[in-house]
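RECORD TYPE: inverse folding
INPUT: structure tokens
STRUCTURE:
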């Protein structure tokens, strides 16, 4: 009929592409399979308005595609701690930015290479244990290991005071080399953790702690 408006067609794509595009468009909201089937971005991919629903056949097709994507790794299915849940009680979030002393790290690496690993003590200052490569990856692994130990020792009754949510080596930054994301009970534990764990790792030159007042992504399902 003349003058009637038509709904724009969605971009063409396979079932997998529709699911992947919908997941990307929904950030920072995290979905279960059921909530994904009703989300606006997926409905739009099937030329439907937010007030409409997928047909039973479409829902079955999307569920099948999603399971296949999880099985082959195209979509990650992950369990994570929701710090804002009262049972978890790690509702504060923060960062610890770590500056690594690259000069002393390379010095220890050179000593090991040229003098043998048994002479690693020739390096001036705290050294990595024999057998551990003198790399930023080793420092990151040590932070993870000692964070778990510290959290166990500093338990609040049966609850953890702090938990890692992500840790990564950062390239291209001027002031820091490793970035640690954490959930914690309160700021006191973040500062205590930085002093007692991160600052005692060999070759860590400096740290900076930062609080996050709001987030998008995994902490806000």
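DESIGNED SEQUENCE:
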């Amino acid at each position: 009929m003349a003058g009637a408006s038509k709904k724009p067609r969605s971009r063409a794509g396979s079932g997998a592409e529709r699911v992947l595009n919908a997941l990307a468009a929904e950030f920072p909201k995290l979905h279960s399979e059921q909530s994904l089937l009703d989300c606006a971005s997926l409905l739009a991919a099937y030329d439907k308005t937010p007030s409409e629903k997928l047909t039973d056949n479409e829902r079955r097709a999307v569920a099948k595609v999603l399971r296949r994507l999880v099985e082959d790794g195209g979509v990650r299915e992950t369990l994570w701690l929701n710090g804002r849940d009262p049972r978890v009680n790690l509702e504060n979030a923060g960062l610890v930015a770590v500056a690594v002393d690259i000069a002393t790290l390379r010095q220890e690496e050179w000593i090991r290479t040229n003098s043998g690993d048994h002479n690693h003590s020739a390096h001036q200052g705290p050294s990595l244990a024999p057998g551990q490569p003198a790399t930023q990856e080793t420092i990151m692994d040590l932070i993870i290991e000692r964070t778990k130990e510290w959290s166990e020792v500093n338990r609040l009754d049966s609850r953890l005071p702090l938990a890692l949510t992500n840790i990564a080596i950062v390239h291209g930054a001027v002031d820091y080399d490793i970035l640690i994301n954490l959930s914690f009970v309160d700021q006191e534990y973040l500062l205590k953790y930085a002093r007692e764990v991160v600052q005692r790792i060999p070759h860590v030159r400096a740290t900076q702690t930062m609080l996050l007042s709001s987030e998008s992504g995994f902490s806000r399902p």
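NOTES: Residues 161 and 189 are 7 Å apart (CA to CA).
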